[in-house]
Amino acid sequence: MSLSETAPHLIVRIQHRLGALELDVAFTLTQPWTVLFGPSGSGKTTVLRAIAGFVRPDAGSIVSRFYGREFAMTDTAKKIFVEPHKRSVRVAGQGAALFPHLTVRENIAFGAEGTAAADIVQEAIARFQLPGMADKFPWMLSGGERQRVAIARAATAAVSLSEGSILLLDEPFTGQDVQLRDELIEELRGWLAHTERPVLSVTHDVGETFQLGTEVIKIADGRVVRQGPVAEVLALERERLLEQLSPSKGTPA
Amino acid sequence: MDFEALWLTLRLAVGTTAILLVVSLPLAWWIATGRGGGRALVQAVVALPLVLPPTVLGFYLLVALGPLSAPGRLLTRMLGHPLAFSFAGLLVGSVIYSLPFAVQPLVSGFAAVDRAYVEAAEGLGASPWRTFWSVMLPLTRASLLTSAVLTFTHTVGEFGVVLMLGGNIPGATQTLSIALYDRVQEFDYAAANRTALVLVAVSLAALLLIYSRRGGLRRGELV
Question: Which of A12, A105, A250, B43 has a 20 to 30 Å separation from B157 between CA atoms?
Answer without folding.
Answer: B43
